[in-house]
Amino acid sequence: MHFVFLMDPIASIHPDRDSTFVLMLEAQRRGHTVYYGQPQDLRVDHNRPLARLFPTRVMRATPHFECSEPRDVYLDQMDVVFMRKDPPFNMAYVFSTYILDLLADTTLVVNDPVGIKKVNEKMYILLFPELIPKTLVTRDMGHLRSFLDENGGQMIIKPWDGNGGRGVLLITRNDRNLGSLLEIATADGRQYVIAQQYVPEARQGDKRIILVNGDPKGAILRVPSEEDNRGNIHVGARVEKTVLTERDQEICATIGPTLRKDGMLFVGIDVLGDFLTEINVTSPTGIQELNAFDGVRIEADILDRVEDYVHRGLTRLAT
Fold first, then answer.
1. How many other CB atoms are found less than 10 A from the CB of residue 129?
2. pLDDT tens for residues 80-89?
3. What is the structure's pLDDT at 236?
4. Any idea which architecture 201-296 has in CATH?
5. Three-class SS string for the chain?
6. How many CB atoms lie within 10 A of CB 29?
7. Domain ranges in the chain with CATH number 3.30.470.20
8. Alpha carbons 308 and 304: distance in angstroms, whole number
9. What is the pLDDT of residue 226?
10. Is pLDDT of 289 > 90?
11. 292/295 Cα distance (integer angstroms)
């Protein structure tokens, strides 16, 4: 088969941590042809999406990849396109999904571009109010102050389009910088933020659970450093082995059918204590860390599912 990976520059990834890298390795191991490209090189010619692609070989070595000369390729001639561009989920990202929508009858796209547009990554949790902490979406600083008071003088605010912990703030009522923090976060009331009830269990770690086709495959615990409140690997959180609790299983069983319906094959959810806090669908990570702790190969589970779809002639993940 022919596998296309649309992603950030391949030279910039960390091969020991990157989930896209092991997906490419697994596709290559199975004998598939692997192509690398960037979303900004997508275009449409007479209703046919095409992209500037590099036939690519990846390896656990230095350097970790070799690319042949690029060429323009019509994507309807490919079997699978993995959209693995990291957020922010901005209009450039959204526009690339419009282009990928044109492949609905010819090529499997992972995750489904229609599903990705349906609900923003940070807003997806609002479909499951019984699973999440108290949450407010607003750009009004007065509403944020009221929410802060309602939640005992502590709350988390985050940008609606961020990733990797960027812009996530723990806000407290007695901080003399409160006004400035709210002004900065909302760009003086012009940008929406998501405010959430502070969950004290965050200090013990943020659990990342990986789901494939709506089914949980395992979890890792991301424990924040003493100098930071965020449980993101990008900002220095350490990764520890963990297990799925009964509550984790309940959360996964509740959201799984919706993920399958929306074509979200590879998903990483974040759980703090008993609460679902995020559903990551654009470019989830954590495969290599979970593989190392549990002795599994999540990339093989994903590729098994993808190959099954292609063998059955299916070009849409959404049901």
1. 9
2. 999 999 988 8
3. 64
4. 2-Layer Sandwich (3.30)
5. CEEEEEECCHHHCCCCCCHHHHHHHHHHHCCCEEEEECHHHEEEECCEEEEEEEEEEECCCCCCEEECCCEEEEHHHCCEEEEECCCCCCHHHHHHHHHHHCCCCCCEEECCHHHHHHCCCCCHHHHCHHHCCCEEEECCHHHHHHHHHHCCCEEEEEECCCCCCCCCEEEECCCCCHHHHHHHHHCCCCCCEEEEECCHHHHHCEEEEEEECCEEEEEEEEECCCCCCCCCHHHCCEEEECCCCHHHHHHHHHHHHHHHHCCCCEEEEEEECCEEEEEECCCCCCHHHHHHHHCCCHHHHHHHHHHHHHHCCCCCCCC
6. 12
7. 201-296
8. 6
9. 72
10. yes
11. 6
Would you put residue 279 in left (φ > 0), alpha (ψ -120 to 50) or beta? beta
Nearest to 120 by CA among 227, 317, 230, 280: 280
Residue 167's pLDDT is what? Answer: 85
Top-level CATH class of 134-198?
alpha beta
Q: What is residue 230's predicted lDDT score, i.e. its pLDDT? A: 61
Is the pLDDT assigned to residue 121 strictly greater than 90? no
Joined tokens for residue 255: 């959201």
Q: Stretch 44-57: mean pLDDT, rounded?
A: 97
Taking each helix axis from N to C end, the angle separating 287-294 and 19-29, rounded to the nearest 10 degrees, works out to 70
User: Does the CA dihedral 303-305-10-22 come out positive or negative?
Assistant: negative
Residue-level pLDDT at 231: 56
Residues of the chain with CATH 3.30.1490.20: 134-198
pLDDT (0 to 100) of residue 119: 80
* pLDDT of residue 62 exceeding 70: yes
Say how far apart CA 232 and CA 289 lie, in whole Å.
Answer: 13
Lowest mean pLDDT among 119-123, 143-147, 191-195, 308-312: 119-123
CATH level 3 topology of 2-118+306-311: Rossmann fold (3.40.50)
- Please give the positions annotated as active site: 122, 158, 208, 222, 230, 270, 278, 280
Number of other CB atoms surrounding residue 148 within 10 Å: 21
